[in-house]
Design brief:
The chain is mainly alpha-helical. It has 14 helices and no strands. It is globular.
């Protein structure tokens, strides 16, 4: 075997051949469009990797492991928002120059982003309409639909800290989205006041949640300034669908108690 190098460790020769513009002759900005979206998919993969660890940390009562990982996912969200700044250097006319080459391809078909939503408890039947059974990864998304979410594992963590979690939450229908609970809010508020180290985790979770909402907002404004009220590529519903999730917190219980602290 040849010695391990930077290039073959990262499989760079293969990686750098995966950017294949469809326009002929290639439109200059299509390369940027491809690289940005490929990079997003790599970050989505990392987020899923981190959330799998966070679920284990939560169910194992590992406070400092969860704190460490939430610092990381919060920082990744900042990078995802910053990437929109780069994409916004592409004008609407630049995008129009190659948009028809995308045919039926659409960001609505990103399986990994839907996985991120499902893992975080935002399970929407409507998203499955845009995922055909033959899409690569569609089976993973169906599996995520029936899995416990980060929030369900968070309930485990709260119990390790003496919180009382309602039985109906522990036995809930996992195919449905997580929602707010006054009892959980009461327990979180008690921990805020009695466990300063746990409050650090709660604030990091809120930071991440805010970062995700910021990314959604910036993404919507990017789409609006690029294609306006048009449907997305492949007939996807565009801005109206994106706005369904705008300002919808992932951890509503952490937001609901702010006025009581």
């Amino acid at each position: 075997m040849p010695p391990l190098t930077y290039a073959n460790y990262l499989d760079l020769e293969k990686l750098l051949t995966l950017q294949r513009p469809r326009s002929t002759p290639p439109e200059h900005d299509e390369m940027l469009f491809i690289i940005i979206h490929q990079t997003y998919e790599l970050w989505f993969k990392q987020l899923l990797h981190e959330f799998e660890k966070i679920e284990k940390d939560f169910s194992g009562g590992d406070l400092f492991g969860a704190i460490h990982s939430f610092k990381r996912v919060r920082t990744i969200m900042k990078v995802l928002v910053a990437q929109i700044d780069i994409l916004e250097t592409m004008t609407p006319s630049s995008f129009s120059s190659f948009r028809d080459r995308l045919e039926t391809a659409s960001g609505f078909q990103s399986i990994q982003f839907r996985e991120v939503e499902f893992v975080l408890g935002y399970k929407r039947e409507s998203t499955l309409r845009y995922v055909k059974p033959d899409f690569p990864g569609a089976d993973r998304l169906q599996h995520r639909l029936h899995e416990r979410t980060v929030i369900d594992h968070f309930y485990d963590f709260l119990e390790t800290r003496g919180a009382k979690i309602p039985e109906e939450l522990k036995k809930r229908d996992l195919t449905q989205p997580n929602g707010p609970s006054e009892q959980v809010q009461h327990e979180i508020l008690k921990l805020y006041k009695s466990s300063p180290e746990v409050s650090i985790l709660f604030e990091l979770m809120t930071d991440f949640d805010e970062g995700l909402q910021e990314w959604r907002y910036r993404h919507i404004k990017l789409v609006e300034r690029t294609i306006g009220a048009k449907h997305g590529t492949g007939g996807s519903p565009g801005v109206p669908f994106l706005k369904e999730s705008l300002f919808r917190p992932i951890f509503p219980d952490l937001w609901a108690i702010r006025h009581e602290m």
